[in-house]
């Protein structure tokens, strides 16, 4: 089949998310200028540069109490910092609880039971039990076509790694099994890996 997105796909559900899959999940924690805490997962997320290390996530919807966006982007506009918390399979239900359309006053750490810890460099909280946390300073927010589409870019200025995720100096994802987003309501988990050497290595 072929379809033009502007004309619709004619299927029971939009296949786009299922085509671009699996996608890592950025579990983004932010703090508003008023001190309010927020924790929310984003599956339009990835690392985008090595030196300096940089990441991005995209927010694609809005809430009535936040105008043109959601809590995460609104908080980052105010404070210019955020933290990326890596999601392990064991935390899938906790992560999912933070994905709801909760109002601005809701602290998703408290709501979900995610253990909170202070970041080292930025004024923000992080998920204390996550396999890794990336403390980030905002570099830019880019408005994309569409009513509420924003991409947030940040430079990683601090990295936390859970000690039991390191094996012989390698951050080993099989120690915690990363959770990834697929299409529809589907997720997947990394339980195996293999190595490929690039030509010339």
Automatic annotation (TrEMBL):
Gene3D superfamilies: Electron Transport, Fmn-binding Protein, Chain A. It comes from the Bacteria. Residues 18-173 form the Flavin reductase like domain. One of its GO terms (molecular function) is oxidoreductase activity, acting on the CH-NH group of donors, NAD or NADP as acceptor. InterPro entries: Flavin_Rdtase-like_dom, Split_barrel_FMN-bd. SUPFAM superfamilies: FMN-binding split barrel. PANTHER family: BLR2425 PROTEIN, FLAVIN REDUCTASE LIKE DOMAIN-CONTAINING PROTEIN. This is Flavin reductase. It comes from Roseivivax halodurans JCM 10272.
């Amino acid at each position: 089949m072929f379809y033009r997105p502007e004309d619709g796909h004619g299927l029971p559900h939009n296949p786009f998310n299922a085509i671009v899959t699996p996608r890592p999940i950025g579990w983004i924690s932010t703090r508003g200028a008023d001190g309010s805490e927020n924790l929310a997962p984003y599956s339009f997320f990835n690392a985008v540069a090595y030196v300096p290390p940089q990441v991005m996530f995209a927010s694609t919807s809005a809430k009535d109490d936040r105008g043109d966006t959601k809590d995460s982007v609104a908080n980052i506009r105010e404070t210019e910092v955020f933290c990326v918390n890596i999601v392990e399979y064991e935390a899938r239900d906790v992560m999912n609880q933070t994905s709801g359309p909760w109002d601005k006053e809701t602290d998703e750490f408290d709501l979900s039971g995610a253990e909170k810890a202070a970041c080292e460099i930025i004024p923000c909280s992080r998920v204390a039990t996550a396999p890794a946390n990336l403390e980030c300073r905002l570099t830019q927010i880019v408005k994309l076509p569409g009513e509420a589409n924003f991409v947030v870019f940040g430079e990683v200025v601090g990295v936390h790694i859970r000690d039991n995720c390191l094996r012989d100096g390698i951050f080993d994802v099989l120690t915690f099994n990363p959770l990834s987003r697929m299409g529809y309501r589907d997720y997947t988990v990394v339980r195996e890996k293999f190595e490929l050497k690039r030509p010339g290595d």
